[in-house]
Amino acid sequence: DIQMTQSPSSLSASVGDRVTITCRASQGIRNDLGWYQQKPGIAPKRLIYAASSLQSGVPSRFSGSGSGTEFTLTISSLQPEDFATYYCLQHNSYPWTFGQGTKVENK
Amino acid sequence: EVQLVESGGGLVQPGGSLRLSCAASGFTFNTYIMNWVRQAPGKGLEYVSVISQTGDVTYYGNSVKGRFTISRDNSKNTLFLQMGSLRAEDMAVYYCVRGGSVNPLDYWGQGTLVTVSS
After folding, report:
1. For residue B7, is pLDDT > 90?
2. Does the CB of A41 have a partner CB in chain B at under 8 Å?
3. Distance (Å) from the C-alpha of residue A30 to the closest C-alpha of chain B?
């Protein structure tokens, strides 16, 4: 199985900050990676697909990059509605696997 | 508008069975691969199972293999997850999720809670 190591597991940031979250795959997955945002009690929402493509309707402050084994989700200027938990997902091979999650908290 | 509505969750004793359903609407159901993903209370996301458009190809995560069966009824736009030999560690919110490798996990249902307890 492909392991996805996501870091950090949590971070504290303020509105307006630039936030970066990283996922590392245990083997190369090309660009078969997505990023999801989840708020408490609500289903996850896809933000990024194919490592760097922005989901329709998602604000442009979210961006993704990477290929192979290293991937990054960046929020260029954190907004109040962005405090949530973020997960990466590899869909290169079954079983698809998620990162452990990164909780973004208000400093 | 794409809608996925899960049902069938509830309280079940260890060793028991439960069948989850997911009613799909707003898209051509029989052209999409469908998935189940779960989330234990306070934990991360775990991929459970996938089924092809026609239902002839399925895959299960190691933790549920041999105990869960995924199926679909394309005439009723419905996805199912038959769960058996349930354990405490199966307790989770189960999400019905659309999408295969080309456009993975793009739409999620609201989830249904399965509680395994005596």
Report:
1. yes
2. no
3. 12
